[in-house]
Specification:
This protein is α/β, with parallel strands linked by helices. The protein has helices at 24-35, 53-63, 77-90, 101-105, 107-113, 125-137, 213-217, 225-239, 255-267, 282-287, 292-297, 312-317, 324-336, 354-367, 384-389, 415-436, 445-462, 469-472, 500-507, 509-526, 542-548, and strands at 3-7, 41-45, 67-71, 95-99, 119-121, 151-155, 158-161, 187-188, 193-196, 201-202, 221-222, 241-245, 275-280, 300-308, 340-347, 371-376. A hairpin with a 4-residue loop joins β8 and β9 (193-196). Mean pLDDT is 86; it is low at 503-512, 514-538 and 550-562. Its cofactor is [4Fe-4S] cluster.
Length: 565
């Protein structure tokens, strides 16, 4: 049986300005398939190769696959649906499969608007996909689909969702097939090196209102640090990867294992061959002040901090336990440890004003991060905050849910002015860095890295791909009146279908413990203590982190690199 995996051709001008990112999901699923004896697996990276619909159709005709599968986050859902429609056009006999976080929760809407999709894989894909492929290979499809956990499909006019499948219990059994990717395509522009996105853990013990990771992955599970380093060593030796970013939302949650990971990298001499970056919380940096030098020796050179917003009001809305002064101190500590730091600001909420946007710029200048990023607030349609926002979200064109398009219209300004003021922050921040900072950072690694970041930024700006500026017709302050975000306002939104996932989460032991932590945080907020990422004032202890990493039960509820098809 021939299986074709396709990464949809979606572009937004966001993170991709730093380079082409390898679609880790394809490697994880290909590894699971080949480990089970299915060797006739092919992959098309339509995004990196800019494969248009006509060329994709020709490739599918040439390959003659029995099964075509793709994945989608919210902004790429329409491209994913179109990819599978093309497969059905080539041959109605092709079985079309879709996975990913959006389809997991929005399966009713997806199947309604794209009835040519034969089946949706809900949740982690490795084990569910194997059950599905075996049923097809054995000739038990489509009758067996009702008996396979973790699926959604159309049965006549009815939309059927089978029982949620358990999460993957042993992450060490997952062996990604990194060889399915053409590594020469995946270059991190700032360093000119091949880049990978391995993962150390799945899930998160915190419940930030704007996030879906804890919902999708369900359980917080962390891998053996030595196994993660084994994988990185393979990427270095077999695929000449020179830079990686851990896919985890917060790899430092379990400090004990993160330290062991760093020590293992050092023991094998890998920091001489590969450097890396992470996303993490301000509070973790403050907690780990005495270990930052170790992290740098292990090759950690770039930390992106979720400072989120400058206004304390916004920090409260996002359930962040971070204060403005903590943000500033964390950035200083990282710079003193010779680790480049990127401050992430969330902008574009209903209460955004010209003054709050100016405040984020002043904060960036005061905190002195090496890099700054202003992301438009994007309310995932299956997040808690989306429901809380209610009618304030009037745009349901998911193609624009990409962190660069203003989804929510602030009460005090229109979307074009919001975009213009964000661009003004970028222009001022990076102009000052280009003139007075980056060229004078010595002659070593830091200077090379920062000038590489500036190169990537300028290249995307010149090509008008940054923030999708060319497509929306933004050319500077003088073009505000002509900006057109091209929203498809005919699209409406269905409620996310959590169903069995949510009910199971509420009865899960780990979810109950998580809720207790959040409950205490909520009580302390009323007393004036600021919170973060849904957590309490305390950090997770090593014992707490290991507790969250316990084996899930079959009844547990849902739950970034990895296994969503």
């Amino acid at each position: 049986m021939r299986i074709l995996l396709v990464h949809p051709n979606y572009h937004s001008g966001g993170a991709e300005i730093a380079g082409n990112w390898p679609p880790a999901w394809a490697a994880y699923l290909a590894g699971a398939l080949r480990g089970a004896g299915y060797d006739d697996v092919h992959f098309i990276d339509a995004m990196t190769d800019h494969v248009d619909d006509a060329a994709l159709e020709a490739r599918i005709r040439e390959l003659k696959p029995d099964v075509v599968g793709t994945t989608a986050i919210t902004p790429s859902i329409y491209k994913a649906e179109e990819t599978l429609k093309i497969a059905k056009k080539v041959s109605p006999a092709i079985i079309t499969m879709l996975g990913g976080v959006h389809a997991t929760f929005m399966f009713k809407q997806v199947l309604t608007e794209a009835p040519w999709i034969d089946v949706i894989v809900r949740g982690e894909g490795e084990e569910i996909l194997l059950d599905l492929v075996r049923a097809i290979d054995d000739g038990r499809w489509p009758l067996a689909r009702h008996d396979i956990e973790g699926l959604a499909f159309l049965d006549g006019h009815d939309i059927i969702a089978t029982k949620a499948a358990p999460t993957v219990k042993d992450l060490e059994k997952i062996k990604p097939d990194w060889g399915i990717l053409e590594w020469g395509k995946y270059i991190y522009i700032p360093l000119g090196k091949r880049v990978a996105i391995p993962n150390m853990a799945r899930g998160c013990p915190f419940t930030c209102s704007f996030c879906s990771q804890w919902k999708f992955w369900r359980d917080y599970r962390i891998r053996d640090p030595k196994a993660v380093v084994d994988e990185i060593e393979t990427l270095v030796n077999d695929h000449e990867v020179g830079f990686f970013i851990l896919a985890d939302e917060e790899p430092t949650i379990n400090r004990k294992k993160f330290i062991a990971f760093c020590e293992e990298l050092i023991a094998r001499g890998l920091p001489e061959k590969i450097q890396w970056g992470i996303n993490t919380r301000v509070t973790d940096i403050l907690r780990d002040e005495e270990y930052l030098a170790l992290y740098r020796r292990a090759g950690l050179v770039h930390v992106s901090l979720g400072t989120e917003a400058a206004a304390q009001l916004k920090l409260d809305l996002f359930n962040k336990e971070t204060t403005v002064e903590q943000n500033k101190k964390a950035i200083r500590l990282l710079r003193e440890a010779d680790i480049l730091v990127e401050a992430q600001f969330i902008v574009g909420l209903e209460n955004e004003t010209a003054e709050t946007l100016e405040e984020t710029y002043r904060m960036a200048m005061d905190w002195k991060p090496d890099l700054a990023n202003w992301s438009m607030y994007t309310p995932w349609p299956f997040s808690n905050l989306f429901e809380e926002l209610g009618d304030k979200v009037e745009i349901h064109d998911f193609d624009k849910y990409n962190f660069v398009t203003p989804i929510i219209k602030p009460a005090a300004m229109d979307r074009a002015e919001l975009l213009d003021r964000v661009m003004n922050n970028y222009r001022r921040f990076y102009m000052r860095k280009a003139l007075f900072s980056y060229p004078w950072q010595g002659t070593g690694y830091r200077r090379k890295y920062l000038l590489g970041c500036l190169k990537a930024f300028l290249k995307a700006g010149f090509q008008r791909t940054f923030y999708d500026l060319g497509r929306v017709n933004y050319w500077g302050p003088q073009s505000k009146k002509g900006v057109d975000f091209k929203f498809d306002r005919t699209r409406t939104n269905h409620r996310a279908e959590t169903g069995d996932w949510k009910a199971a989460a509420e009865t899960s032991r780990k979810a109950l413990k998580r809720e207790a932590v959040v409950h205490e945080a909520a009580k302390e907020v009323k007393g004036g203590v600021i919170k973060a990422c849904g957590g309490g004032t305390q950090q997770l202890t090593d014992e707490d982190a290991d507790e969250f990493n316990g084996a899930p039960t079959r009844g547990d509820a849902p739950g970034r690199s990895g296994a969503h098809i």
